[in-house]
Amino acid sequence: MNEHLDHLKQQLTELLNMPGVIEPSKAGSKSHFRLLPGELTLNPLAQSLEQTDVPYEAQIKIVFSWRIEGGNEKLILTDKALALSIRVAEFMHQDNDIKTQCTAPITLDTGLSLSEYGRVNNIKKVKGEFASLEDDKLFLYREDWQMELCIRVLRHHTPPTLQRITLSSGDNDLIVE
């Protein structure tokens, strides 16, 4: 699962041209973003009769927060904040198909594995605002977004070996072993 978060972090680092961290972390700088994975739900998916593996979709709620801070002489911070805000909004636009990928399926244990492909859904901007710091000499712009990272999970199930079938028809029994 970390590889999916790392891939999303890499995409956002390239978009914003600023460092990012995956929470929990104590790292920070004047311009950075954070990805905070939270609640996980596992939803069963439809499966065919021939399928022995049980598919689920893991939905991980993520808060994506980015911030820049500094002086706003000649509206430099305002210009930068608005330019980045437009880039993020365009990247997060519902028509954009945001995907994550890791090198191979990830085996969690003998019965569970994660797909190497993920996608980001249900993107929503929560807030974007300026605040003043240190006697109105420094300012901060921050945006918070909510999203879900969806990854397919398979529970592997090996059906037991057939031991015996008995077919009864009147007085005759047909037994297959």
Account of the protein in words:
- Helices cover 18% and strands 50% of the residues.
- It is α+β, with helices and mostly antiparallel strands and 177 residues long.
- It has one domain.
- Strands 1, 2, 3, 4, 5, 6 and 7 form a 7-stranded mixed sheet that branches.
- Strand 8 and strand 9 form a beta hairpin.
- The chain is rod-shaped, with a radius of gyration of 25 Å.
- The two termini are 44 Å apart.
Give descriptors for this structure:
about 180 residues; alpha+beta; seven-stranded mixed β-sheet; two-stranded antiparallel sheet; rod-shaped
Q: Give the C-alpha Rg.
A: 25 Å
Low-pLDDT ranges? none
Domains, number? 1
Relative strand content = over 45%
The helix-and-strand class reads alpha+beta
Give the helix level as a range of percent: 10-25%
The count of strands amounts to: 9
Total helical elements: 2
Morphology: rod-shaped
* Beginning-to-end CA distance, first to last residue: 44 Å
Sheet with the most strands, sense and barrel status = 7 strands, mixed
Order of helices and strands: HEEEHEEEEEE
Mean pLDDT equals 84
